[in-house]
């Protein structure tokens, strides 16, 4: 994991994500704060996620500084599941309407259809064959890579139809796991999510059609297999 302080920008739908890396201390946080502040002001971003997944350590002064630019956006959240960081965020001043989200389900609740990737189709010809539903639903895809190695990836479905779905990774480790698999063709894949109007999660056999890497963002398209 990166020890040097870094920040990178990406997006899912109309939601901008700032990925933080390394040790965030008062001595070197100003450059990161200015990067976030400048991008929010120039882009007029109204939906922002601060991803602290790869933060090793943060001190209180740095934490307060990094939250200042998030006063401006209308919807904002911190994506954080480290118990240590969660405790720090919950015990400091937070901008108004700031949410602390521990998983994709909470991110989905906060941003809803602002996470939807417009005009993203699952496979060729889908525009004619299947009606697309815009959703923001967490999905977990599991695969047996080898007899001793299993992959589990959680992402956000932003495009759903009778034929399949397109999902995007908020979790950078999930994105890396996807990119590390060279060939999905012979893998048995199962996707678990709660379809619209369903009362509980359901499991589907799927085929991975493709993965997409655009700048720093990773998404994937999957097709439902007929039982």
CATH fold-type name of the largest domain: Thrombin, subunit H
Rounded mean pLDDT is 87
Strand order of the largest sheet: 6-7-8-11-10-9
Cα-atom Rg, whole angstroms?
A: 18 Å
User: How many domains, in number, for the residues?
Assistant: 2
Question: Architecture of the largest domain, CATH level 2?
Answer: Beta Barrel
CATH-assigned homologous superfamily of the largest domain? predicted glycosyltransferase like domains
Q: Return the string of H and E elements.
A: EEHEHEHEHHEEEHEEE
Question: Major β-sheet, in short?
Answer: 6 strands, antiparallel, barrel
Considering DSSP H and I runs of 4 or more, what fraction of the residues is helical?
Answer: 10-25%
**What's the N-to-C terminus distance?**
42 Å
Explained architecture:
This protein is α+β, with helices and mostly antiparallel strands and 227 residues long. It has two domains: 6-113, Transcription Regulator spoIIAA (2-Layer Sandwich); 116-224, Thrombin, subunit H (Beta Barrel), CATH 2.40.10. It has helices at 30-43, 60-67, 83-90, 104-111, 126-129, 172-180, and strands at 6-12, 15-24, 47-58, 75-79, 98-101, 137-146, 149-160, 164-168, 189-193, 202-214, 217-224. The strands form two sheets. Strands 6-7-8-11-10-9 form a six-stranded antiparallel β-barrel. Strands 1-2-3-4-5 form a five-stranded mixed beta sheet, with helices on both faces. The radius of gyration is 18 Å and the shape is globular. The model has no long low-confidence stretch (mean pLDDT 87).
